[in-house]
Task: inverse folding
């Protein structure tokens, strides 16, 4: 990392490899995993989702701004190079629908699809807007200490988290708890908020199954959706301030549980909502 670069911006650098092809508009990007976002197995899922958004934002045929993104983690992304195939499958007057595919060579050198995704972008119109899920009454970020996790995986160092409630357990004794966690969070070092950064922040929460019951079972996201409720101007106005996230689980059943979260700007505007399906094993 240079003195003027940010690890997030380095991680989402995509180089045009091919396209867009004249028939379907597919662009093939060349990307590379970043050591600053290393997780237990492969890179942090939020940075992979951010790379997917970047592949849409850089596409020469882009219409509008991101409204929705879904990423399916079909296999663990290995450290090293990969390609992203990004295609606008349908463009209407004000909306555009996309498919996204991460491809990486296996140990035999054969290309394999490891991640699939869809996205929707749109030209937003000035019309009725409201917040039906207000910012909860919590202490401000400035009054809370940064949360440090002992022996943490590397990607946790890329975010400043200031916990309000629902920390990870210190005793893994199988006891049951409310699944909610509330945390102020921002990129570390600070970085002005945009769609790429917001996407990464949407995945900061640890698996809810670990919060619901103090048993550290193997767990990982298999599908993640982000709905964006702000435009570029609103994100720019938020700047590098901490945003508030609150996540909880609704149900766990036979190896899979859900995870839902809301992300607010400090002024109370909802920036995004996100939903995940998480695999767990015991």
Result:
């Amino acid at each position: 990392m240079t003195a003027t670069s940010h690890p997030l911006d380095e991680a989402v650098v995509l180089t045009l490899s091919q396209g867009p092809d004249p028939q379907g508009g597919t662009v093939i990007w060349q990307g590379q995993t970043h050591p600053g976002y290393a997780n237990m197995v492969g890179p942090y899922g939020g940075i992979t989702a951010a790379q997917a958004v970047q592949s849409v934002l850089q596409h020469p045929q882009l219409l509008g701004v991101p409204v929705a993104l879904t990423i399916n983690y079909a296999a663990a992304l290995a450290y090293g190079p990969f390609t992203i195939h990004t295609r606008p499958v349908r463009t209407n007057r004000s909306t555009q629908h996309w498919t996204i595919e991460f491809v990486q060579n296996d140990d035999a050198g054969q290309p394999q699809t490891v991640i699939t995704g869809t996205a929707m972008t749109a030209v937003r119109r000035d019309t009725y807007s409201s917040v039906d899920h207000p910012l909860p009454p919590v202490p401000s970020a400035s009054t809370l200490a940064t949360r440090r996790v002992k022996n943490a995986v590397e990607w946790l160092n890329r975010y400043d988290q200031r916990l309000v409630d629902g920390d990870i357990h210190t005793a893994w004794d199988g006891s049951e708890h409310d699944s909610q966690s509330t945390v102020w969070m921002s990129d570390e070092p600070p970085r002005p908020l945009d769609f790429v950064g917001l996407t990464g922040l949407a995945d900061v929460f640890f698996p809810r199954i670990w919060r619901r019951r103090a048993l550290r079972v193997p767990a990982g996201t298999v599908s993640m959706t982000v709905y964006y409720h702000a435009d570029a101007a609103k994100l720019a106005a938020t700047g590098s301030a901490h945003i508030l996230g609150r996540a909880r689980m609704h149900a766990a059943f036979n190896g899979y549980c859900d995870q839902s979260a809301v992300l607010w700007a400090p002024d109370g505007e909802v920036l995004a909502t996100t939903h995940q399906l998480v695999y767990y094993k015991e």
Observations:
- The chain has a mean pLDDT of 96.
